[in-house]
Amino acid sequence: MYLAANSYLLSEGHDDLHVCHVDVTSGQEGKNGKYKEFLADYEIAQVQVFMRHGARSNHHQIPNYINPHNFSCELQGSELEASLDFPYFLEAVDEDTGLTLPIDGNPKPSWNPETGPDGKSCKEPEWNRTLGKLQGGGVLLPKGVRQMLDFGNSLQKSYGPFLGSLSPDEVYVRAMQRPPRVFLSAASFLKGLIGGSRAAVEQLHEGNFKIHIHSNEKEEPMESSSGVCARGDQLYNGADKKSFILKEQVVELGKLFNVSDFSPHCKSKDPDIADVAITSVCDGGELPCGPGNQCISHELQVRLQRSYDKKWYEQTAGRDGGLEASQLIMYPLLKELVDGMSAEPSSRPKLKVYAGRDGVIGPVAAALGFGVGKWPPFSAHIVFELWEPKQSVAGSAMVRVLYNGKDVTSGVIGCGGGALCPLESLKSALQKFLSPFATHEEACMLIPDHAEVV
Q1: Could you tell me which CATH number the domain at 35-227+323-442 has?
Q2: What is the pLDDT at residue 4?
Q3: Proportion of the chain in helix, strand, coil states, percent, rounded to 5
Q4: Residues with Cβ < 8 Å from 139, sequence gap 6 or more?
Q5: What is the pTM (predicted TM-score) of this model?
Q6: In the chain, where are the structural domains located?
Q7: Helices marked H in 343-434 — which ranges?
């Protein structure tokens, strides 16, 4: 495990709605504002983006909930117009075989949010008797489509000509196979980035922009639960079990919803009660109410959000296994990042995009040392910029890192607190994630609880 010099201390200030969204239109990416002069001797060489999907509906349920929020997944206006263009310039491709994926195949990428029988409301989670758990739900909302459209458009403006008039071979996009909201978020982002009408896009670009998907989930480095790193899974699950919502809060929730033991709805990696309350409020709905018409108060929600954030911090960045788990599990993805930056310019896409969930953004931020200790909001993103010195300037390739539009480079491990991070320094720091082992495979082997590593 590699510890950052400036370890995070949980802040006192919490916003109970901070998970709803981030401002995707006014970030510090590119040569904007004060960075224009600072980066005058460098030229942008590549941009890589890790992003969480946009706003979604709930995918958990709680008992005796009398005011469930009605989520609409009917696209209208500019969001509908954008989705109608998707099939004409985008293509889903199996990363493992190189074959085009049918939209109704398996896995099932879709150009539209999943709706219920009425064609308007979002498809709700359903109980799977075979697996003994809820499945489905968590559908990308129209506002989630809008967030991703705006984010793509904002990045294009930030980098100007560098990301202007991109051709399909200059862009690499990969989305997690599940859930469908991730693929649709990637499609919306690309539409915002490319812009223009369908006719203009077809005229400017030969061939489709591809969204890659690993049909074998175990091959996807973003899939933190793939089981590829047994030691990482062991540490993460251990940290998860040791972090919990306070007992008095569980008792309060049990009284509100007339449940003798509410703890099962507070224990999952993303607790049922958190999912139901947050998705409702983020969509303009109410906090959940129980059968006595007593509801979660704003004050209780603030306390619960603090518990969720503390639980998230312990799971991903805590000293009791969370940080080491993040570094081990996310190592393959971060190695792919630096390998992509180290590639020859002729084989290096201008833009690489990795679309995933909160379980990508949070652990990556924690592993690199700038995790903020809060649940990553919908549309959360990390941007990695590769800058190369101009021909007239001596120097080496440098990396700049931004989290939700804010420059966090000085907090990245191995970067020495500098405003720019040497690419070689970042590569060396990642290798320390494996210490004292030489390979990721060795580092991921299970270690008995009381064994010493020498």
Answers
A1: 3.40.50.1240
A2: 45
A3: 40, 15, 45
A4: 56, 57, 71, 73, 113, 114, 115, 122, 123, 180, 181
A5: 0.92
A6: 35-227+323-442, 233-317
A7: 358-368, 423-431
